[in-house]
Write a structure and sequence with these properties.
The chain is built from 14 helices and 14 strands. It has an eight-stranded parallel β-barrel with strand order 1-2-5-8-9-10-11-14, surrounded by four helices. 45% of the residues are buried. The structure holds phosphoenolpyruvate and manganese (II) ion (MN). GO terms for molecular function: 3-deoxy-7-phosphoheptulonate synthase activity.
């Protein structure tokens, strides 16, 4: 079974995109092959090194961003806020864990969405579902929902614009990170936060402020190391036409690199061992994430990991479990035990979002802050009992003041106020920051 850049085309393809014009797909793919890469193999290898260290417990992974990024949200304020919340969360975690945090955004390319149904019905009309801005558009019209190959070029362009801005902010140190006065800690004064927690968090935030002031005071001599923030990108590698078009050999390195993002992941719906996605991702050098839900058979997970990483290379695999609060205890332990017994190297990361999605009576998708917390807490516990450890967390979040998840200051009645997600519900700025304090609390113990 030899791998080549198009070998995925001979495999069963879950979530296949129904393009109706093969010639346009081919001309877009040819164009994408010529355009510069969005990331470099150096960065990809550096991330792999970081993940290898995280697999040894020397680093912790924080991954987060929108469920579905949109082209319309490619705006400076929105991008800045997303970067800000991720960086602030990472500092809370660094402080708690006393180890470096690898920061990975779900951004600059998180434009393709798997769907549980290929079509959507409204008022007797049936149209293709919305598969993300990389594929079609969310408006419910036949024209908008047609899979348009040119959307790949738009998404590539917007990824480049986003990444360019993120790189500039990161290189310049990003003042919002280092100035505690730019942090919004309003959640600390919320009446429903238990007093003991509130006091603990206030102390943590004071210690954090002191540490940041100290770093500032060190000034110019160490400015480069301290102010340059390292930041990586990730997205679900769903659209294989797009991903394979930006996959190439680079001078003086072995193998192929996927250069649309540092860390692509394979979703829960596309991880069949003989399917197109696993075939494609087994052939690239990048770190690869795999989502694993509560129905996963540990034996299948082992086969999957061995297919994706036959040499058991360090830093190569990130296992992102998304069991749900109701299943995490029963489902996670057998998986973790089997993988540990097989001697397979993975970084265990908890995605506490995708197993905890519910609908309100009015049909809005939401998630409960308490379920999210519970799944993380239980994941720490299961790993502890299995003699392994949780090496990272994966959130759907935004830096803006949206109302999509319940708890952490919001009730079901608040959801209508600013429900902005085009796909799954995200933590807002305050909920995400509080989440970091809560996770930090467990890590510090
Ligand atoms: C996602 O991360 O948005 C997603 C669809 O996840 P999963 O594949 O775990 O359902
Ligand atoms: Mn999602």
């Amino acid at each position: 079974m030899s791998w080549h850049i198009d070998s995925w085309k001979d495999r069963p393809h879950a979530q296949e995109i129904a393009y109706d014009d093969a010639d346009s797909v081919q001309s877009v793919v040819s164009k994408l092959r010529q355009l510069p890469p969005l990331v470099t193999s150096w960065e990809v290898e550096r991330l792999k090194q970081h993940i290898a260290e995280a697999q040894e417990g020397k680093r912790f992974l924080l991954q987060g961003g929108d469920c579905a990024e949109t082209l319309a949200d490619c705006q400076p304020g929105i991008i800045t806020n997303k970067l800000k919340i991720l960086l602030q969360m990472s500092l809370v975690l660094v402080h708690a864990a006393k180890k470096p945090v690898v920061r990975v955004g779900r951004l600059a390319g998180q434009y393709a969405k798997p769907r549980s149904k290929a079509t959507e019905e409204r008022d007797g009309l049936s149209l293709p579902s919305y598969f993300g801005d990389l594929v079609n558009r969310p408006e419910f019209t036949a024209e908008a929902r047609r899979a348009d190959p040119r959307a790949m070029l738009d998404a590539y362009g917007h990824s480049a614009l986003t990444l360019n801005f993120v790189r500039s902010l990161s290189a310049g140190g990003f003042a919002d990170l280092h100035h505690p006065e730019y942090w919004d800690l309003a959640f600390l004064s919320r009446a429903d936060l238990p007093l003991a927690l509130r006091e603990e968090y206030i102390q943590t935030s004071h210690r954090l402020s002191e540490a940041l002031r100290f770093m500032e005071a060190l000034g110019e001599t160490t400015v480069d190391e301290l102010t340059r923030v390292e930041f990586f990108t990730s997205h679900e590698g769903l659209n294989l036409h797009y991903e394979s078009a930006q996959t190439r050999r680079v001078p003086r390195r072995e193998g192929h690199y996927l250069l649309t993002t540092h860390l692509p992941w394979i979703g829960e719906r596309t991880r069949e061992i003989d399917g197109a996605h696993v075939e494609f991702f087994r052939g690239i050098q990048n770190v690869v994430g795999v989502k694993l839900g509560p129905k996963v058979d540990p034996k299948d997970a082992i086969r999957l990991f061995s297919r994706l990483n036959p040499e058991n290379e360090a830093g190569k695999l990130v296992a992102i479990t998304r069991m749900g609060a109701a299943h995490v205890q029963q489902s996670l332990a057998p998986l973790v035990d089997a993988v540990r017994n097989a001697g397979i190297r993975v970084l265990w990361v908890c995605d506490p979002m995708h197993g905890n999605t519910k609908s309100t009576n009015s049909g809005l998708k939401t998630r409960s802050f308490d379920d999210i917390l519970f799944e993380i807490e239980q994941s720490f516990a299961v790993h502890h009992d299995s003699g392994t450890f949780l090496g990272g967390v994966h959130f759907e979040l935004t830096g803006d003041d949206v109302t999509e998840c319940i708890g952490g200051g919001l009730t079901e009645e608040d959801l209508d106020k600013n429900y902005a997600s085009v796909c799954d519900p995200r933590l807002n700025y305050r909920q995400a920051l509080e989440m970091a304090f809560r996770v930090g609390q467990w890590m510090g113990k």
